[in-house]
Amino acid sequence: AGLAVLAALSGMAAGLWQHLVAAKSPSCNLTLADRILDGLGLFDLLPSVFMPTASCADAAVDLLGVPYALWSVALFALLGLACLSVALGRRR
After folding, report:
1. In angstroms, what CA-CA distances link 8 with 2, 63, 66, 72, 85?
2. What are residue 60's DSSP bridge partners?
3. Where do the DSSP E strands lie in the chain?
4. pTM for the full model?
């Protein structure tokens, strides 16, 4: 549960980065994710899955007036709180 809390915090950080930085950038070139995927050869292995087809600014879409990135931050926060509850509950 403790590792899941850390993963949830990482997901929240990624969502906030997407909303605050990447969505305002006209290009996603040379991001950390690009370097990892390229290093693993995933662009060549499964291009239909991993090859980017839009800029980060194009990917900034809303659901009910709230950007997808913020929906993901909220979901990661809820999951993190649930995992934290489990982690603290097991200590008692």
Report:
1. 10, 21, 20, 10, 13
2. none
3. 62-63, 66-67
4. 0.63
- The token pair at 24 is 């305002």
Rounded Cα distance between 27 and 21, Å, is 11
Contacts 24+ apart (CB under 8 A), 83-91: 83/1, 83/2, 83/4, 83/5, 83/8, 84/1, 84/5, 86/1, 87/1, 87/2, 87/5, 90/1
Contact 89, 2 (CB under 8 A): no
For 4-22, give the DSSP string. HHHHHHHHHHHHHHHHHTG
CA–CA separation, 4 vs 85, rounded Å?
Answer: 11
pLDDT digits 0-9 by tens, 45-69: 888 877 766 666 666 677 888 888 8
